[in-house]
Predict the 3D structure of the following.
Amino acid sequence: MALTHIDCFSGPGGICTGFHAAGIKTLVAIEYIKSCVETYSANHPEVHVIYSDIRNVTAEEILPYVPKEGVDIVSSGMPCETFSTAGNTSRSFYDERQFLFREGIRIAKLTNAKMILFENVPAITTKTTARGATDLIVNVLKRELEAAGYENYIEIVLNAANYGVPQRRNRFFILAAKDKNLRLTYPLPTCKKEVTVAEALAGLPNVIPNTDISSTQYAGSDSLFSKKMRNNSFWKLGKGRNQTISYQMPMKHRAYTLERFSLLKQGESLKDLFERYEGEEREAMQERRVLPRRMFIKRNYRLKSDEAAPTVTSHCLDEFVHPMFDRALTVRECARLQSFPDCYDFAGGPYLVPHIERAVQDKYEQIGDAVPPLLAYEWGKKIIELLEEDK
């Protein structure tokens, strides 16, 4: 009988997708961004998805879908903006978001979960409870885990690139169990060599900016990774789908943006162009808008074909340039870097939306904020192993 799972802060379904492939059955998901709910439901129609702020979710909304004896695992990947060092402005805020881990614990207690899996950015380990305070958020989390009966826990930072995901993405995890005698471990790395960007994008044809012509047919040679992304039997999703490519759609770029991209070598970004062009030459390029007036460090990075990508974020449309072509990445290409299977339908929300609020997420933002399914798959296998040993 499959282990059971409740997915808190579920996003578009990264953890559920990986757990599903591993053989874990997700019963309930909780998410407050409508576009993510739509994407989740489109791909996992068997899951009861609650579209709500998790703080407002009641026992009556969850317990009818949960076995009387409880569930095996609750996952909780609360929003990371308040912890991330990528945006100093967001990290400077001390608000209710940093204590949302309490909701994951509340749901676990409510459903008598055997385990809880927390996921966040590594910087959560250095964030204090208030400006000038010395107590760390992560220490509060641990104390409240213990008070809830989850005294047995391990903490670890894992790099997704060590688990077959074609990006270097470090994430902090806490796995906690009610059983004090259960010997907890984390998934061991599954690959000695990183999956490269070239391997990740294998089989995806080029698209030409500003043409409105999408590419729907696979082209070129496959890689082991691209075959896995197309293997619906592995993912246990999308029966009868995947004959054509979805979301390989061209973007619109202005002429000066295309010229900027053409100046970038692999491994270079906007920062390198600012260093290369100085004085009057730079000013002339700024007049033509080939270079912006301000330099953004994490902007317009041309990916290196023979390496894994840097961390894919919700700003991936602006941050990455295709390694071979003078354009940004498509939605499907970003999904490949995150290890979402090709059959995955990013149904929710607009294709693009101004990145100004959390209430709406476009397709790029959904992908960038998700947990890589292949990393979730390895956690799923490990959780099954641990709980089966505990029987």
